[in-house]
Amino acid sequence: MISVKSAVCYRRGSFMHQTKLGNSFRLGYCLIQPSTLSIQLDGCEKQTLQPKFVEVISYLAEHYPRVIPRQELIDTIWNGNDSVGEKALTNAVWHLRQHLKSPDAEKEIIETIRKVGYRLVIAPQWLDEVGAPASYPAKPDRQPDHRVSGRDGTSITKGLLKFVAYSVVVPCSILLSWYYLTQYEPIQEPDIQRVTTDPGSELYVAPSPDGRYIVYHWRTFGQPINLFMRDLEQPQMPARQLTFDNLRQRFSVWSNDGQYLYFHRRNRLQSSCEILQIKVDTNQEKPIASCGLNSGFIYMDISPDDRILAFQGYDDKTNSRGIYFVELDNPGAEAVRFSCTVDCDYTDRDMAFSPDGQHIAVTRRRNSYDENIYLVDLATKNARQLTEGEENITGLTWHTDSTKLVYATERADVSSGYIIDIHSKKIHSLNIDGFGFPAYSRKTGELFYEQRVRQSKILSLQLNNTVSRTPFPVVESKFSHHSPNYSKRMDKIVYVSNESGHYELWTADSDGRNRQQLSRLKTNVRYPRWSNGDSRVVFIGQAESNRGDAIYIMDTESGKLSTLSTDYDDFDRPSWSYDDSAIVVGVYENSTSEIYQFDIDNGTARQLTADSGRFGIMTTPTTLVYTRHGRGLWQRDIDTDAPPVEKIDSRVFSHPYAWTYAAGGVYFRRNRSDHHQIIHYDFDQQRLTTLVRLPIRTFRSYGTLSFLPQEGKLLYAGTEYPQADIKKMKHPLLP
């Protein structure tokens, strides 16, 4: 490959970056020829690009697979002119995505990495690397010089060529500049308006059909969590509270006539879950159906004729979640299961009725790494898959023309929004950080969504200090890092980070220095844990068959990675047997779990609990300390039939993962209404000691704890109290 310097000068200066502008390259089905400023899709005509667009795609190609920060692109291509480069770069990437799309393509070639920049998702193939080397004309044999010289000896031919060059090149340059300025109009920026401004998080927006009101779930520090309604025509007025029970109602949906709102109320203390109708004018409530305590998020939607309410419910007989329909025009009607009931390898979760009433779009989750959108014909129940390769769908809604869906995804804690055409399956990115749970106002066509950016860091907390304790950052950056686990033998922590675009395995010194990426599986891994006596780490990742989880073991010194062979594919957090010969891990089947032990050499399985065990640690060769569904910390001898003993009462110990065992005791986190407590339990003295009080929501929700004995510190993943707002958008791709 030959790297040449661009000699093309633009109005704002020369482009000085050395690239492969003399070399053509392919990106899948696209041929890019920088020397002619052109792009050509297989089977299509060649198209001309603006020079800046070519420079952007060439720079991304030359530096593949690195993520290129936006500022680096602006500094390189727009000479650091931020005022011009910010919008120009967004414009260039949008146009490139349009040109790089084939009619059959479902994914974009340029990926946006939140708060960082861009990267190519497929490797460029330079022509001289794939059997099509760039050809150069052979140097001709030297011939006698028959040119006529002037009086000063200067070649007349040379002077003539200069004259011709200036006569042709200058006008052509002017014409080309005019062409580029008129051919490509800058992309129209989406019109985004912030709708809510209250502190805390406003989530799961439900706009009224006429777009005047929105209902949302509001949570803020020290306040009960309920549903609120805001009048958008009177933004100066406070939101009106609709529910008053602090039972964390999430999703709601309006009737199409705007008179009623439907939502769920789940009360675990009373073992009840109900779908309710509330008359908006009077707050009068009416029960509609039962939804089951284990229903998950309880998504819901209503048919365009107001006859059918769909919601995610739970079937106690089959121990499975799915979508249920209840007839609203038939008082007393029982909810009927719409989803599959027998031999299902997926779970239907979210849903959205099409405006024309012919289809329902549903999200189907097959495992922790596979949730995609399917289009189901309501008359025949025939389903067609629309998306591929998604892990977590966080909301979907129909465009009013019934031909497009707007949906949100989450991958490695990064939320993004997309538009998909249900006929061609073409997908366009909305390029909005933190986009989630979109919802259209059915009559006005306004698109609402929540914007929430979540980020975690690894912190240490000194426990044996008499002065005021303040968490200290150990690993903190613009990326998210969590699940730290410390090894005294290695004097290192292992954790997961999304710095590469996926949650991969990383190590660092106990103070956060000397960070090193260990895994490169290009998928999300979870729950790393050091062995007790050597350099191995166990963690959970995606199985090679893509059909669920696998248990991975990595030797951090040799880099050897192996997979533990089992008959299961859905695991909770792993740990090690006391002698490191086996893996102890919760196994999920039919929505319940038990703790098993798997021999590393032969994969032999042994069930250790029979009371819905979730996560356990072997504190002696035969003693298992563990948590289970429900609350409390339990202990049992795995070699006897003696019943388990509750070591810490469920009224005090409620979190299944936020604890760690160390030197005859347990450190654990207790959640209070307005703060967190770090408590130590001594097994010998059977005594609880409160060590630290910390502000509410400073911990990652399902985060773990790890203890550094020589320093008397706890490691954990922390977050700031989340701020989430509801916004309204008009996008040029959504007329």
Automatic annotation (TrEMBL):
The residue ranges flagged as biased composition, category Basic and acidic residues, are 139-150
Q: Name one GO molecular function term.
A: DNA binding
Q: Which residues bind DNA?
A: 22-122
One Pfam family name is PD40
| Annotated segments matching region Disordered | 133-152
Write out the entry's keywords from A to Z.
DNA-binding
What PANTHER family does the record point to? PROTEIN TOLB (PTHR36842:SF1), PROTEIN TOLB HOMOLOG (PTHR36842)
The family assignment reads: Belongs to the TolB family.
Q: What is this protein called?
A: OmpR/PhoB-type domain-containing protein
**Which species is the source of this protein?**
Exilibacterium tricleocarpae
